[in-house]
Amino acid sequence: MAMVPTDPYELLHWNMKLAHQTYVQGYDVIVKLLTDTPKDDLANVLGYFEAWVYSVLHHHDTEEEAVFPKLNEKMDFTHEQEQHKDVHTFLDKFLTAIHAAQKNKAEFDAVKLKELVLSAKDALLTHFSEELTHLEPAKMKEAGFSEAECRDIVTKLVEHAKNNGDPFIVVPYMRSHTPPEYKDIWPPIPWVLRKVVVPLVLAKRHSGYWKYAPYSMA
């Protein structure tokens, strides 16, 4: 059974690892949908693509506002911030294409979109991997962060994530891309939200999107 790490030095790395896994899973779903697109459900397919983009952007915004400033006091995360710019260049292009197709279905070109998405794979996956390596517990200790500082970073990360972004997008996205073994412990939200509010309220607004997610909402 999966458990939340009790070591403060492991907690930030663990949270980031699980978050990154949701975006990698979403990326894989997008590639599959662009390989064999259900054209009769294009609105929801495009909505799913858009939800993935917004979720990645929300995650990066949380890092830059709540995490990197503290980490940069004792480490150097400018490389990761530069990687964000490269990834966002791709996300901006992808989002522009999504919006064009939402306005006019004739603009949807699965082949070109797949080429665009595949062209960003290395930058995206390298960023996720390198960031996790930089956040390894041993490196946090070596940099001189205390246990209290590590807990504070995680607290600020969670608070910023909860208080920003569209809850009808980022919360259902996260829940429907979290594996069953982590459902009860991550993301850290109360039972009533996990079992009632998210599946019965937040996920309902864009329910058609989540049929393409790898896991159930609750």
Top keywords for this entry?
218 residues, mainly alpha
Quick structural gist:
It is built from nine helices and no strands. It has helices at 8-35, 42-71, 78-103, 110-119, 121-134, 137-143, 147-163, 170-175, 191-202.
Q: Could you walk me through the main structural features you see in this protein, from its secondary elements to its overall organization?
A:
This protein has nine helices and no strands. α1 runs antiparallel to α2, α2 runs antiparallel to α3 and α2 runs antiparallel to α7. The longest helix is centred in the N-terminal third of the chain and has 30 residues. The model has no long low-confidence stretch (mean pLDDT 96). The two termini are 17 Å apart. The protein is mainly α.
**Strand content range:** under 5%
Number of helical segments with 4 or more residues: 9
The span between the termini is 17 Å
- What are the low-pLDDT stretches, counting only 5+ consecutive residues below 50? none
